[in-house]
Structure formats: structure tokens, C-alpha cells
Amino acid sequence: MSHQSRIWSDVVSKLARQLPTVFDKYQNPSDTRIDLVECVKEPISNDYVALLVKSYQRNVQLFKMNSSEIPIVIEKLLLISEIDRAHDFLYKIIIEHFDSATDIIEPLIRMLMRTCPMVNMDRRNELCKQVISSLVRKLGDSKCNKKLAPLFFDFILVTLDLHVMEAPKCAERLLKKPEFYPWKELAPKFKDLVRLCVAYDTFEIKTYFSDLDSLSEILELVANRAKANAPIFRATHDEALEAIYRWSTASTDNTSTKIRCAHVCKMGGQLLQLIDQKQVTADICSRLIKALEQRVIDNEDEEWSEETNQTMNSFFIKLAGQVGTYIEVLKNLPYEVHGQLASFILTALKRPHQNENGQMSFEYSAAMAVWFKIAQFLNNTADARLYEPCLKQLRSLACDDEETKAFDWSTTFWSIAGMKIPDMAADHVEEFLSDLIDRKQTHMMALLPTLYSKRPDPYHARLDELIDGMFSGDISYVSSLGHLFWAITKEHPELITEKQVNHIFASLKDYNGTSHELHLIFQGLGFVANAQPHLFHNHQDVLLRFILEQQNLSAYTCLQYYLVASTIVDGEKRANEALTLFIDLLKRDSGIANDIRKQIFYACQSIGIINKQALEAKKADFEAFNSQPECRTLLDFINGNKMSEENQAAISRNREEIAQVEKRVVKTEKNVNMVTKVVQRQELKMLKYQLEQQGSDAEFADLSTSSETNPSTNDVAIAWIDRIDSSLDTIVLELQTVTNLSARVDSVDTRLNDVTEQVQVQAKEIERIDLKTLSYVPAEWGRQVSKLLNQRADNDWRLLGKRFGYSTSELRHWALQSDPSMSLINEWFVTHKTDEATYGLVKMLDEIGRQDVAKIIREAVAEAGELIPDDMPFEIKRLPPIFLSYQWGCQKAVTTLKTHLEEAGYSCWMDIGQMGGGDKLFSKIDAGIRGAKVVICCINSAYSQSDNCLREVHLSVSTGKQIIPLQMEKQTWPPEGALGPIMSEYLFIRFYDRKSNSDNYWPADRFTELLGQIRYHVAPDPDMISERYKDWFVPHVDNLIFLQPTSHDKNGKQVELKDDTPLVVIHPQVMISYQWDRQTDIVALYKRLTQLGYRCWLDIFQMGGGDSLFEKIDDGIRNAKCVLACVTPKYTKSINCRREMSLADALNKTIVPLLLEDTNTWPPPGPMALVFTEKPHIDFRHPNENIPDGQDIWSLKQFDQVLARLKIAVPEVQTEKPRKHLLDMKRPTTALGQSEHKKRPTRVQSAPSVPQSRACSIM
């Protein structure tokens, strides 16, 4: 053979050249094995091996005959370090014929697992590069039997254990084989995997990128798999934590240089994810916090290269972020750990906050990752005070170094900790006020009003500055100081002086901004007006300007408080003046909003309760407005007529409250003047006494001298002393009188203060009554017309409604109202201009033969000095309730949308098919918007650039239409340009679908969401609904708790009727307010509450009927005992959700916030902050909790807190056992079949009836 003689070597070489196929065929099959055995005997003949390999490569049959021998050959070659020859056999034979080698894959891998550790250390890197790499590449790309997965995983461990540069790449490639490994079964082996990866920290790599980066890729894959397979976390926890401990030790330690290498830092970032959060303890947090602080200290002294520093810092920043996560997981940290956190934060804050390149420094980045998690988990004052040095340092940075971001840090802490631990926050009130007043920083504005009751003195000390600077900033500043002014005046209106009131009104007189930000200022002035009405005698004109020019309801409320309080103080004269002013306001044809008109009648009633004679004298003036329901109630009160039970109850409560006020209130101004005079008189007497005292002292000295020579002077001295004693007694008595008068005035001020609360309560009651009244119909003729049309006839209000074009369902809904014709006419006037509505009504009345009614309207209009034209270019018909605003680029999609909406029961106005152009088309668009209830803005990128589209949006906003924006393509929100400020107030619906191949342009669930949003404002027309959208308003939700109705079978046996139609709750108990993007979770919550015995009302089950969904929602909130607010960022921006929370808060309902998504701060920013300020939330964000399959977020332990709150609010429900059935439910009539209408099923009575139960409403 060639290895035994040089001659033979030459022979083999020549043979290889002349007969390259010499080993392709064998006469005797056993000879093939002989050649395989001989070729691996040392010394190895490369030519011999090459000839064999090429023959086996060419001849698959030869390979099949000897496939079991090939792994043996490779093993022998590896053991003698012939890596290249082993690679030839593997790559050119096994991999070449891989499809035929399936039977030898397992023995091949087992051979490699056995052999690789025996290869010399200096050849292992080549082994990985030549042999293992080729094999794992083929295994990774080929389909393999999943039974081999555990073997593959063991092979990965063996490969990593080779501890060479090439090994991690091979292991990574095989580990990333998709959909192959049974991760949960392999979980125990991940401990070894992590240990082997960590062992590579002994490699000193000076470059940022290297082959060892595969280690972090492996650990990242493990972390991702662990998220779905919790046992992996338990297996990796100890190894990962130990490595983090070791790597995060002080970088100046000469024995610990590992963390300086990039591949170790990268591994560290992934290992942090493999620490099992369920096993994290306070001790673990403590050790990691110490490491962070030490790194901050060392970072200042070290002189590593910039790249090394960045690498190390990136690891420690991730470590800080993980510590922040552990704080969230543990929630309650020991006092000592809080101390360590405070020390770390303070150490970081003392370092520069920016690098030379302007980027945030490592120290600040690490501190920030922890700081923003601390406040929400502070539970006592002792822990919180540990952070006062940090807060002091932040204040120094903000005020002295002008680091404005320090204000953000402070705000984050105080906005949460200040609410939880107000006693500590109260110690810093001076600082907060200084920031607000001196630096115009409004960051503490949400907290300051809540701290007022804790320490009012600092507020009082700066009251002059607060009032002087109230109008010196931007809109947000005016609003912020106004809020503080409101908080002070609500508690102590007597502190406000005449000078301060005059200053406020002087500023208001020159104020040119909107009146929205003045809301709280006017409310605060209202409190002052209740207590000190004499301060407002000269400021009625300013209030009237805001009422008439800006329709400001708060300004009117302030005026009302002043006039009512003045009537109590000044009597009949002020009552007459107030009533005259109110009547003059009512007589104005324009400038007075309907809400204000309603409140005026209520104010007149309050004045009448105080002074009935003055109100009776104005009776004739009020009769001119008797078409308005509120005025009719007032006239009934004047005349002593019998009123409805509801109105009588409201008036009775009003009478009782005013009567109590009259008994307690004395004449405030007269008392103040009297006290002033008494004090002045006493001051004069004291002065006189002092002068007399001085004179008597001199005379007494003379008397003392003369008494020695003349004893008779003693009698004179005694007389002087008696006079002094008598004067002192008189002064003491008079001073006591002054004290008593002062106490009486304080009592009067306190009692007058109550007027504010009483009026507010009465206003809410009137608001509730007003929800059932109509006010758009002109008062001059509305009452008479509705009375005539309500009388049953062939041409009554129903025929009028049909001629106008209203649907049968709308007419049926109005027929259920107490005044159906008024409802119809009001709807007509709401959707048309007044002149057009009047003309159209008279014209239609003439056509249906109701000239008697038309005559009343004509005469009333003529008496008002106006005329109804004989003809107007105006089409007399009910306009579609939906207006589609779009840009022509998406016309096809909008046309399809119009078709679907009309099939769902909503007629739409769209400018396709509208004849004419220019002004004529604009006129039709104007009418279409005015006649609509809802405007749907179909927004694409060109929409905001279109002048016509902008015109439509502005008209919609100015006419108070409900706007629903649809995103017709991917774009930023809010859109750029002039449309941005308007649309930023609305939540859009993503109405495009890039994945669907259907004819529709939108995802199916988005169209359902759109229908639900429209339903809030408009009921669908059942006559228009096509078969495709039949009963779309009846939800089809699987696995809900449906109460099954009962019936009887043919044998008379009672059975349950099984269907998927949910039942409507008549007497619910809890209201759940939510935004539609979390509807799935809310339905799951509904299911759980229903199972526990709570009666639940869902808006998605209330879509039927002809009334507005808002009316049903309003009833739900007003009747609820408790409101669950499911808070998300979208929830805080939703206009509908804001309305719900405002109403719930105004009605003093128990509100329990459930935080479903992160809002950055608590309370969440925006208008809802005031509602949620003092309400602790229940955290359902569950960022790091693994929810078991088949479970939802309500399966978390936080749900127990929800039940605990509900038990307080709804104590009559016992939640120990789930309820299968509930009472007081019925099926929606829209969902009943024809046969079921005839015979309604009975209910299973298995739950106790609770008297006067409230609403459980899911919104």
C-alpha cells in the first residue's frame, strides 16, 4: 500500500490518474469493507482516501451497501486528528447522499457525541468548522424525524462543551431548527445549556463583533421559548442569576474582567431574561442594586476605551431595567432595600446627566429605569422619606442647574406617591407652589389641589400672587391656577377680598382666549359669590358678556349663585332685580344656550322659594315662555297647580333646602358692616382709655405725693381707681360682644357656603329631568301645535312624520313618548336650519290638510316681526342620518362602505349622484351635514390637504355633529396639517386591511365596531336591513352566560329553550366602562361577574330599539351602585368614555379603576386625571405573568381585589358560589322569533330578588 512503501505511493498516484474509477465496482462485496478499513490505517494515504471518497460520491449504491461503515471510518479519522479526511467522508458521501442516509443519522450523531470530546484541544476548532458545521447545516435545513429532537439537543450540548470559537455558531444553527424541539420536555436540560454558554466568559475578545455572538443568540432563543414554557425559567434561574452576580461585581476587581468583553455583555442582557421572576426575592434585588451603585461609582474613575465603556454600560442599563421589573413583581420591598435604591439613585443623580455628545449618560439612564417604578410601590411614609434626598437633588438640578427633565422625574414620583402618602407630599407644598407661581411649572397641578386640606396655610400665604398671576401664562397655566383657585375657594371662600375679586374681573374683561380654561375660575367665583355676594355687585356685566358671547355655562352658574345668595341677604329688592335680569335673558332670541335657559327657570324657582311674592309679580312675563317644559313647571309652582310626582319631588326638595338656608342665613353685609363699626367704636374707646390712663397715671402720681401732706387726697385717688375699673369692665363686655358677632359672621359664611352644594344638587336633578324634555322647537307656538297634532286623527303627527320621510321604527319609538308630536317636530328642527325647518313644517301641514296648525305657526312668526316665505329652494324631507365625508381618491372604498351601511339599516348622504357643482353642491353638502346625526370622515393622506374636506370637518364641529374618523390607509395620527388639532381629540378606527382578499376594504371586526359607534347616536331602520346584516345588533358571542328561557314540551314537561340569544338585564348592579378595543376582555369579565351572581347589562345587548344608546347608558350610570373603569391609553382619549366618567363622578358613584394597559402615570394624563386622582387602581397590566392556556386576565390574583371592592359597593351579592341563573332579565324583542312573540317563556327563579337593585352596565 502507499503508506508502506514509496514505490507503492507512486503506484497509487499513477493509478489515481489512470484509473480514477478503480473502486467504483467490486466483484466481491466484502472487499469494500476491506478498503474502508485499510484507508484509515496510519499513515493515511490522501490519494487512497480521495479515490474511495470519489467512488462513493459517484455511486449511491455503493454508499447504500456500506452506509453503516462510514460513521466508523469518520470516527477513526477523528481520533487520529485527520479532520480534513473526516470532512471528506462526511460532506462528500453522507451529505451528498443524505436522502439515502436517514438510517445512519442517529448512529452518526451518537458517534460524534462520543468522539468529539476525545479530539485534541488544539484541533477542536477545526473539527467544528470542518465537520460539525457541515453536518448541522444539513440537519438544520432538512426534514428530520422529531423523535431525534432530544438527541439533537444533547449533540448541541456536546458541541458547546468543546469550548472553542466555532462551537457556538454550530450549536445556534442546530438549535434554531424550526418547529422541531419539544421545549417543555427538554426544560431540565436548559440548565446545562446556560451553564455551557456562560463558560465562554473566559474568552478575551477585544472586538465588539465576533463568532461568540452566537451565544447571545442562543440565550435569546431560550428566553423566547421560556415565555411560553415556564419550566424553562425554573431550570435556568440559578445558572443565570449566578452569572449575573459574577459579571456585575466591581469592574475594578482585578479578578473580574469578563464583563468588559462584548460577547459577555450581550450574553448578560439575555441572561437577565432567564431569571425566573417568581423566584426573585428582596435579597436578589438588594445584591443587584449594590452592583449598580458600585458601577456608577467605578464609572467615574475607570479609564477604559470608549467602546469598552459603552459595552459595559449597556449591560448595566439592562440590569437596571430588570431591577425595575423586579420592583413591580415584588411590590412590597423591605425598608433596607428602599434605602439601597435611594442611595443608588442619589449617587447617579450627582453625576452629569449628559455625555459630551449630548446623549443621556449611563448613570441617568440606569437611574431612570428604576426611578419610574418606585413610587407606585411605596406603601408607607417611612419608606417614602428615604427618597427625600433624591427629590432634593432633583429640585436642585431643576431650579439651580435648569435641568428641565428633573421636573419630569419629580412629577412622576409625586403624582403617584403624593396621592398615596399625602402627609409626606404636604411637607413640600411650598416647593410645589413656588414651581407653579414663580417658575410657571404646572407639573404638580394634579397634586396641589388634593394637598390643600393638609396644609392650607402656604396656599393662603401666596393667594395674592396666585390671583395676580392667574392670567399671566398660556392656556394650560390659566387652567392650572384656576384649578387651585377653585380648590381654595371651595373650602374657604371667605378668604377672598374685594381687591382680589376686582382684579380677577378686570383680567376677565380683557381676556381674549376661549372660555373653556376659565371653567374652574368661574366655579371658584361661584363659591365666593355664595359666601360674599356683596363683592359681585359691580361685576354682572362681565359675567353677562361671557354668558351671551361665549355661551359659558360656568359663568352663568356664578351669576346664579350670586343672585340667589344676594336674594337671601337683601330680600325683595334683590329678588326683583334678579328676576328682571333672568327674564331679559329669556327674551333674547339668540345668545342664550338651551342649557342656560333651563337653568334660568330653575334659578327663578329658587328665588321664588325665598320670596314667593316677587316671583308671582313676574308671572305674566313667564307666561310668554310656557311652551318650554321648565317654564310650565315654574308656572305650576307659581299657581300652586298639581304637578307630576317627579317635578313635585324636586320642588319639595328645593323648598326644604332653601327653607333651611333662610332659617340660618342672616344679612351678611349688614353683619360685616356692624362688626366693622363695633370694632371701630371699641378702638376709639380703647384709645380714649389709654389717653385717660396716661392722664390718670400723672394725676395719680401727684395724688400720691400730695397724700403725704394732705390725707384727703386719698379719697380722690380711690375714686380714680374705681373709674378705671369700671371702664375696664365695660371694655371687656364690649369686646366679648365683638367676639360673639365675629363668631356669628363666621357661622353665616359657613352656612352660605352650603348654598353652592345645594344648588349643584338641584342642578343635577334638573339635568336629569331635562334629559326627558325637548327644547329646539320655538316656544312661541310649540306647545299649542304639539297639543293639536297629538289628538288622534288621520292627519295627526304620524302622517306628518311619514311625509317628512321618517321610518316606521322612528315613528313607533316616538309613539311611546309622552309628547310624540313634540319629539317629531324637535327632531325636524334639530336637523335643519330654523327658517328652513319652519318653512318645511308649514308647507307640509298645508299639504296634509292641517291648516289650523299652520295658522298658529304663521301668526306666532308674524307677531315676532318675521315672515315665512312663500317658497324656498329647499327639499322638504328627512335627510340621511349618516354623512360620508371623503376625498375622491378613496371613492370606490367609500361607495362600498355606503352600500354596507345601508344594508345594516343606516341611510347615508354621499356626494355621488348629487347634481350640480359649485355653490349648489356646497349648499347640498351643508344641508347634508346639518341633517345628519353622525359624520364619518374617511381619511386618507390627501384628505387633510383637501379644502373641501376641511370645510366639511369644520362645519361638522361647529354644528356639534358626532364625528367618527376612519383611517382608510396607513398614516400618522393625528394627520398632519390643519386637521391635526381637530382630529387629535378623536379615536380613529383602522379601516384598511392589507391581508384580506375579500371585496371589502376593511377588517370584518372593524365594520362591527363602526356600527357600534354609530349606534350610540342613531338607531338603525329595521326596514332597510338586508338578510346579510339581519340582527347585527344582537351579539353573537360564544360561551356567555345566557339565561335560558323555559317552555313545555308536548308531554307538559318543563324544558330550557337553548339558543344563543342573550337576555337583557332590567335591574343590573355594576357598570363597566370600557373602550371597544378591549371588548374581548370585557366580555370575559361580564361572564365572570354573571357567574358570581352580579346582574350585568351590556351595551352590545342594547343595540335594538329606536332610542339613542346614550339614553340607555345614562340610565345605567345613574342607577349603578358601582362603576368599573377599564383604563387604557385609548380609554383616556375616548370622548364617550370621558362623558361616562364625568357623569359617574358628578353623581358620586363608586368608581373602581382597572388598569389594563400602561398609561405612564397614575392618574392618567388628560381630563380624566381629576376623576381618578384619589382613586387607587387595580393593576391588570400583567406584563410578566404567564397566563395559563384557556385563561384570561381575570384569572390573575388581582381579580380578588375587584371582588373585595364590589362586595363593599354591592353587599347583597354573595360571591361564594357561582350562580347559574339570574332574575329580572328578558330577551331582546328584536331577537325573538314570530312564534316566540306570541308566547313569551318564563324565567328560572333561582336567585333571590334584591329590592332597588342598581345597574350593572358594560359600556
UniProtKB/TrEMBL annotation:
InterPro entries: ARM-type_fold (IPR016024), DEATH-like_dom_sf (IPR011029), Death_dom (IPR000488), TIR_dom (IPR000157), Toll_tir_struct_dom_sf (IPR035897). Residues 1217-1259 are annotated as: Disordered. Pfam families: Death, TIR_2. Residues 1217-1227 have a biased composition (Basic and acidic residues). Residues 796-861 form the Death domain. It comes from the Eukaryota. SUPFAM superfamilies: ARM repeat (SSF48371), DEATH domain (SSF47986), Toll/Interleukin receptor TIR domain (SSF52200). PANTHER family: NON-SPECIFIC SERINE_THREONINE PROTEIN KINASE, SAM DOMAIN-CONTAINING PROTEIN-RELATED. This is Death domain-containing protein. The lineage of its organism: Eukaryota, Metazoa, Spiralia, Gnathifera, Rotifera.
